[in-house]
Amino acid sequence: MSQETTTVTSDKVPMTVNGKKRLDEELKHLMTVERPAVIKAIEVARGHGDLSENADYSAAKERQSFIEGRIQEINAKMARCQVIDPTTIKTEKIVFGATVVIEEQETGKSITYQIVGVDEADIKNSKIGITSPIARALIGKSAGDEVVVNAPKGSIKYDVIEVRYE
After folding, report:
1. 128 versus 56: which is more confidently predicted?
2. Which pTM was predicted?
3. Closest CA to 136 of 165, 94, 91, 107
């Protein structure tokens, strides 16, 4: 993959293949399961009489509003998404999709992160969003480079140990 296809433009929403797949699945679930269920709940609540004092109706309408908002949000992201398959990237530098092993200089602790789209970020699964301070510090670096991350507790220095695309 050429460098120009790994560059993310500001009007695009970068995501990995897995990230797009998860959004597709969420959208399908919202439209085929959640939306029909909330419509049914509204119909049932309407049957209970006075809507102004009907808590079930209010809750169902609020849930419907959330579902419709999320469907619109996902559709907007899908329309602007730039899907990047990390396995096709051929560069030594850290770009979106990279899995990076870094070592904190002060403690010697080794950490592995994959740089992913904002919606895919999940620190428990070692996935950091492209806009996070550590991802921004890593972009453009290579194995052997030193990275300084400005964190709330001060600057933290890391050594880049390994960069891979998987």
Report:
1. 128
2. 0.76
3. 94
